[in-house]
Structure formats: C-alpha cells, structure tokens
Design a protein that fits this description.
Blueprint: H1 3-15, E1 19-24, E2 43-49, H2 58-68, H3 70-74, E3 79-85
Parallel strand pairs: 2-3
Antiparallel strand pairs: 1-2
Length: 93
C-alpha cells in the first residue's frame, strides 16, 4: 500500500472528512537533499475539510493531523503540509 493510500485511509477513518485531497509533491523536491530523487513519496500535502476541526485553532488542527500521521513521519515521510478547515470555512484551495 502506498504512503498516499495509507494517509487517506487514516484520515478518513479518524476524521470522516467531507473533502480530502492527498497530493504527492515529492517531484518538486528532487535534488534538494542528497538521495532525494523526487520519485518517492517523501513530500505530501493534505487538504482536508472535516467537522472534527470545528472550534479548533489552526495549530490544533495541524497537531491533530500530525499525531494521526506520526507513524508515516516516523517511517520516513520527510515533509507534510497541512491545509485544514471545518465545513463552511473559506479555503484558498
């Protein structure tokens, strides 16, 4: 199972999002570090809208997603960008 698929499954199971996009941005980081070729799943962006985020600060939303995805980060996911909103909030994506 791919990193992207595992991230999607974890977030769907725990946050029941009404919108979820997991975007592999690894290709944008090729050559930034030794051994980073851009073809692995090392850099991900999560765009998520979930009622679970209602009343949470931006930092608490990020902490929630990071805590859920800690196993992926511990296993080698190098970078995780999080764009999180509650339903009805404006997004720039």
């Amino acid at each position: 199972m791919s990193v992207r698929t595992r991230i999607e499954a974890t977030l769907r199971q725990n946050l029941s999002p009404e919108r979820l996009d997991v975007i592999d941005e690894s290709h944008q980081h090729a050559g930034h570090q030794p051994n980073v070729t851009g073809d692995g799943e090392s850099h991900m962006r999560v765009r998520i809208v979930s009622a679970a985020f209602a009343g949470m600060s931006r930092i608490d939303r990020h902490r929630t997603v990071n805590a859920l995805l800690k196993p992926e980060l511990d296993a080698g996911l190098h970078a995780l960008a999080v764009e999180a909103a509650a339903p009805g909030e404006p997004t720039r994506w």
